[in-house]
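Write out a record, fold above all:
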Amino acid sequence: MKIPQRRTKRVEAVPTTAPGPSARALAPLYAAGFTTAFGAHSIAAGLGADSGGLGLELLTFGVLLALYDAAEVILKPVFGSLSDRIGAKPVIMAGLAGFALASWVGTTSATPLVLGLARLGQGAAASAFSPASSAAVARLAGPAAAGTYFGKYGSWKSLGYVLGPLLGAGLIWAGGFPALFLSMAILSALAAVWVWIAMPALPVLPRPRYTVAELVRQSTRRSFLVPTLALAGATGALGVAVGFLPLLGSSLHLTVFASMAVVALLALCSTLTQPVVGRLRDQGRLPASAGMGLGLAMIAAGVALPAVLPLAVTLYLAAVAIGCGVGLTTPLGFAHLAGTTPPERMGRTMGAAEMGREIGDAGGPLIVGAIATVCSLAAGLGTLALLTAGAAVLSATLLHSDQR
């Protein structure tokens, strides 16, 4: 007698990954990232373009440029830790509101004193909402999807970098610095309201007490130091490229528009690259060690190219290489930090990492400028290319060993 076999119903595998955060929750964080990039670069470009009209000496001009970054270097770790203690949302809202207030101060006068106070206030406010926004993106996305959402977050920041000088120049032409500061006050105030309405309140997680030895151990782990080094290298090269590539274009007798197009092309490449890189990371097709090593190597090649062959075409090739390299390094660095940091101290880690970026942002142009003064611009760019190449080797080897 033949026993009938029981038919088994095929059941399709159900994905076990949790759905990602909604666009409604993340959109105001992208707006906050755009605000800090737009504010930093529009004012810096405006000061450079109108320094003669304001009667600024070189020392005063340098101080006004440095105030924003100096405030961020000192305060970002402080506000990052504060977001762990009281929650990211109130820190982001207070930072954006403070940015609006500091920008409004800039509308009252165009004297160097008022501009300096406004610039310092903006930097202090950005120190609050920038690391808190990064920590919020990390917690909302989760480790598995951190690359995708940090890619989008970095893309919006890159958009602020490219639109800041362009829109800033137009606003200064239309109404001077008061018009530019007023636009930033309105933008940051709207972003603060948007965060209040749309961003969910993330719960404050209990934090264990750490000894000094434990804090030192956490700050010297490869999983923190290597991505932070990569982010600092990428940001330092970006700062050099934004300032020195147009200078090279001017020395090659390019028009102002053609020189500005070099920076716009760089930012566009970074904007388009970051979301793609983030998705590849989350799909397991692009390891952090290989991606950051490749990104830094591309940046090093882009910095070295115009130093070796100072031609108009090499400027644009350098912009593409540096922009794509920054687009590779940035989301992978932040995603790796998000994936290796406990949620209860995410703000502190992001604040410390962003402090490293700011040090790179200030150190890159200083290194190139100092060597260019003593030797030549080609020597300065070559030195930065060698340092970035060294960071590429360290990122690829040390992080790969750590992942194994």
Q: What stands out?
A: The CA atoms of residues 280 and 310 lie 34 Å apart.
